[in-house]
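S.,

As promised, the zinc ion run. Input:
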Amino acid sequence: MSPFSSSNSSHLTSGTTHRGVPSRCWCGNEITMFTSKTDENPYRRFYRCVQGVKDKKEKHMFRWVDDALLEEIRMIENKHKQLLEDVNVLRKMVVDNVEVQNKLMQEMKQQMNKEMNEIIQQELTDTKESLEKSNMKTVCILVVVAASILWLCGNVV
Ligand SMILES: [Zn+2]
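Predicted complex:
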C-alpha cells in the first residue's frame, strides 16, 4: 500500500479529521505532492508532509492523491445534496410564508370591508338624522311664517 515499507498507511491517515485534499500536516508543515516509485504503486502520486519525508519515524500526513480527490468529490457531492435539501426546505418555507401572508391579507381585506361598511352605515344614519332635523327646522320656520302671515291678515281685516 504505502511507499514507506516501515509504516502502515491506514494508521497514518486515521489520526486526522480532515478529509479530501490535505492542506497541512498535523505538525503544521506544508503538504507536498510526490510520485511513488515502488513496484506496488508505480507513478502513483501522493501527498506527504515535508517534515515527514525527512523524518520517516514520525507519522506525518500521507494520502494518495486519487483517494484524496475521490474523497473531495464525495464531499462536494454531499455538499451539493445538502444544498439541494436546503433549497427545498427554503422553497417550502417561502411557499408556506406566501400562504400565511395571503391568508393574512384576506383577513385584513375582510376586516377592512367590514369596517368600511360600518363607517358608511354610520355616516348614512348621521346624514339621515341631520336631514330629518333640518326638515323639522324648515317645518317650524314655515309654521312661524304662516302664523305671522295669518296674524298680519287678521290685523289688516
Ligand atoms: Zn508533518
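Residues 9-74 form one domain. The two ends are 143 Å apart (CA to CA).

- D.
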